[in-house]
Amino acid sequence: MTTWNLQGTKQHILICNGSSCMRKGGEEVTQAIRDEITQLGLDDVVHTTRTRCNGRCKDACVTIVYPEGTWYKALTEEMGREIVRSHIGQGNILEDSVIYTYEQEGFVAPETSDSIEGISKKVKEEV
Ligand code: FES
After folding, report:
1. pLDDT grade, residue 50 (50/70/90)?
2. Could you give the 3-state DSSP secondary structure of residue 106?
3. How many angstroms separate the alpha carbon of residue 103 from the centre of ligand 1?
4. Of 64, 98, 101, 106, which has the maximum CB count within 10 A?
5. pTM over the 0.90 mark
6. Distance of CA 58 from the midpoint of ligand 1 (Å)
């Protein structure tokens, strides 16, 4: 177990390592993101965490970038590297791969998203 001093960390990348994402290359995506962070010398300002299922398995492999609250879908190793180079490095979101962005009213799916809407939590509570 490790206890990092996270003072000065500017961004946090949550990489899904749940079973659906792992079947779609989650381990390779994790390694690619971490390698790109190291290659760009960003280890002191970007923290990564492997997570269990994030509840968007149809979009596997899922990765989330905070503090922006940008949810990415269907990541490959190369897309993981591109998130680090473009989103983290230059502030450019990879629009075509976004499931949700974080707005004033909460998470919002882009109008251009082709991801499934999923099950409403309100509907689930009524069943
Ligand atoms: S396993 Fe990654 S979203 Fe479910």
Report:
1. very high
2. strand
3. 23
4. 64
5. yes
6. 8
Provide the pLDDT for residue 126: 66
Annotated domain spans of the chain? 11-108
Could you tell me which residues come within 8 angstroms of residue 37 by beta carbon, excluding any fewer than 6 positions away?
Answer: 43, 46, 48, 84, 88
Provide the β-strand partners of residue 90: none
**Amino acid, single-letter form, for residue 91:** G
**Largest CA-CA distance found in the chain, in angstroms, rounded:** 49
Atom of ligand 1 nearest to the CA of 56: 3
The CATH number of domain 11-108, selected from 3.40.50.300, 3.40.30.10, 3.90.10.10, 3.40.1350.10? 3.40.30.10
CA–centroid distance, residue 15 to ligand 1 (Å): 9
**Ligand 1 pocket, Cβ-based, cut-off 6 angstroms:** 16, 18-21, 53-57, 60, 62
> Which pair of structure tokens corresponds to residue 25?
């290359």
Write down the mean pLDDT value for the chain: 94
Best substitution site from 14, 15, 20, 24 to test ligand 1's pocket, by max atoms within 8 Å of Cβ?
Answer: 20
